[in-house]
Amino acid sequence: MQQGVDMQQQLVILGGGSAGWMAAAMLAKTLGHSVAITLVESEEIGTVGVGEASIPPLTLFNRALGIDERDFMAVTAATFKLGIQFEGWGNPNACYMHAFGAMGRDLALTPFVHLWLKQSGNTRAVDASDFWRYSANACASAANRFGLTGGQGDLPHAYHFDAGLYANYLREFSQRLGVKRINGRVSQVHTDSTSGDITALELSDGTRIAGDLFIDCSGFASLLIDKTLNAGFEDWSHWLPCDSAWAVPSARGDMLRPYTRSIAHQAGWQWQIPLQHRTGNGMVFASRWWDEQDAKAALLANLDTQALDDPRLLKFKVGRRRKQWHHNCVALGLASGFLEPLESTSIHLVQSGIMRLVKLFPAKGLAADALRDEYNRQSQQEFEQIRDFIILHYCLNSRGSNQSEAGSLWRLCRNMALPTSLEHKIALFKESGMVVRQQDELFAEVAWQQVMLGQGVSPQSWSPMADKLTSEQLTEYLQNIQTITSGAVSKMPPHDQFIQAYCQMETA
Ligand SMILES: Cc1cc2nc3c(=O)[nH]c(=O)nc-3n(C[C@H](O)[C@H](O)[C@H](O)COP(=O)(O)OP(=O)(O)OC[C@H]3O[C@@H](n4cnc5c(N)ncnc54)[C@H](O)[C@@H]3O)c2cc1C
């Protein structure tokens, strides 16, 4: 064994979007002088320029980098996100939340949902909307409030933020840690004729950048993992048929909501994301059922505030690279695959890919076959679990009864054959109110419960453990939780006031 300074590895990152700069920052921070990092990006090509909603683990990523939350929020014009409100997904008038954090309180080994199901009595006629009165995040969202005390009772939150500003911030951060940045367009990729490994990137001016390990963060171009190494693609568009999105910023609204809105439409859904200085909007849609121009017109007609630009069209294919680490190349971000942004998981997949790589980082010169297999196994599992959670929203819809949606995306999704893993999860919940979280699964039981109840699944039974309490005891237990939850929320300031004080934000 001979690891030391002389064993410094040359790490080359292609791409300077959020994936590239998040990778550069974390790898430089965690691996220090054992790697020399060069990042190549092309200002001429630019970045995808969308991606504004996140999920709570991003707080951990920033903390691991030593980034102060106030700085992050001020620099990226961020607001807090307590969850996602789904409008019109069950039927056109239904509305529910996927709120982050706990729902009620488990009673010893009895999960809260079973206590709630028992209280609801006749499980076939559950008024699901009552469920969210036990979530501090949902109650704070409904009241547009937010608060942090720095204690254990803080609301679990994520952010709405400008991912472009985040990438710029991380660029400076990474360069301070010694990451070398090159602005140029890669025109050729050199590989070793024997091993097939990548040896160097060549820029259009002829500059060659050699490396031991290459990280493909080239976005939808997938220049290394796909165009050079042909890692293969597993297409999931039969489960997730949306393939396009219009994106447009609009003026800041009067009130900053601490949650993302996801509003179902004729053959797709609209996002609304409040940032400090503007609102991010988009319409994700299936071009098979919705004409591009009609989808654009629907987006513009449904903005709450004035559009600040012309809408931009993005086309995508949902699925994942069969191997996310292939030869000496690891793909992160859009280069590694794409799941539509319904649950704001793309930047999270970047984050978890980076952390996985940090843990499984190979020593110089190592063939690393087992590390590569393990990385690919974990990546596949994570992608599939998130895929199932996103499909869940589509397959449980009850739209499509009116004429304009007849034969639409919604009907197809309601009737399609599901991945077995998802079919099992739904069947288990329908039968018993039970959700079993697989090891390391990103979305917790409570997330699955909210989407299933919110979209009309009524479990046939609850756990007999919930029958231990008399109905008086149960009523008192649930009432106490509601009182504590609503009491805590009523003490919180309005979300926009909190941000202003937290970031010393200038008033508009
Ligand atoms: C419609 C839509 C909505 C989304 N919403 C969300 C969301 O709400 N939340 C979320 O987490 N994610 C969201 N995402 C995903 C998110 O935008 C991306 O995951 C994230 O921005 C990472 O992008 P990236 O860095 O992989 O790619 P990009 O931002 O496209 O960066 C690619 C980089 O590669 C460089 N490059 C490419 N080719 C070359 C070349 N030949 N030479 C040199 N450089 C090159 C480019 O210059 C650029 O720097 C959304 C995506 C889409 C399409």
Automatic annotation (TrEMBL):
Enzyme class: oxidoreductase
Molecular function, one GO term: oxidoreductase activity
InterPro entries linked to this entry: FAD/NAD-bd_sf, Flavin-dep_Halogenase_NPB, Flavin_halogenase, Trp_halogen
Signal sequence annotation: none
Keywords, in A-Z order: Oxidoreductase
EC number(s) recorded for this UniProt protein: 1.14.19.-
The protein's name in its UniProt record: Tryptophan halogenase family protein
Species, as recorded: Shewanella submarina
